[in-house]
Amino acid sequence: MSQAPVYLFTGPEVGERNDAILKLRIDARKKAGVLDEHSFYASETKFSQIMNLLLSDSLFSSARFVVFYGAELLKKKEDLDLLASWVDASTGGLTTLVLVSDEISCDKKLEGLVPKTNKQIFWEMFENRKEQWLVNYFQKNGFSLSSDAIELILDMVENNTEALKSECSRFFLCFQPGHQVTGEDVEQVLAHNREESPFTLFDALCEANRPASLRLETSLGILQKLRLSKDSSGIQLIAGLTYCFRRLQAWHQLLRENPSPSETDCRASGFVSKKARAQYQNAGRVWNPQQVSLVLALLSKSDMEIRTGGMALEDTILYTLLYTIVIRGGEAMDCFQEIPF
Known about the structure:
The protein is of the alpha/beta class. 57% of the residues lie in helices and 9% in strands. It has a five-stranded parallel beta sheet, covered by helices on one side. A two-stranded parallel ribbon has the order 6-7.
């Protein structure tokens, strides 16, 4: 009996996960010849719309390849029933659905609808594996790395191969092949020309050793840089922060179950790198579990306000969001309360 062409890829290792999706996509193109390709996000598209797409005929190709990001949000009975009906009716044809989540796991009913062989968790890389991956990546491009350069890169770049590829490709534009990248080069290329992102914004928000007023000042500066960039998007910024605060929620859960977790416990919960553990340890000192719940609710509310209010109010919503997270621990303000910017 043919397996349903549905896959579930979870976990924070974005680079390897994207490589797996690309392999599926290439295989699908080879089988179908012409492929009708789509990507959707749970925060933007109703799952029922995706099911309608999968069930309808295409005028341009005999097959579809659909990637759905945010699978951890698929919990509603009506959505799971739609997916179950599609899976049951599937004959293992040319249409493929790939469900993707940054979380380690999703709803158990959802996971039960996906064949075991089509499920994979992409864990963060172990420290020693990251170092070897980095050395190999530079060697393939004709460069070498000093030991202090390796340490600095891994300390400064988000812990997944997609981010590492993006950041490290800058060195190949700055130096000639054969060059050994040193710690000084890393400082010059990455530290002095570092692009801001929702993740660097979260870093600034959770610096527990700094007063709230200074954290807010730094965070607003990062927000301004993000808003001036060509890829500025309030929706994406909120999605990135939501991911970080969901991870913080998982960190608090880990501490509730074991106040002194071992390295093995941390890895099992998805906190593989030392940097990640230090970051969420700091964040845990800034926001307690109740405040994290408030922040997540606030992020969801702000996302909805941007979608319904349009661009005109986006900056105001984002600035108010940061103020409320840093100064008020996520507790929403009275609508007539003045924000002292």
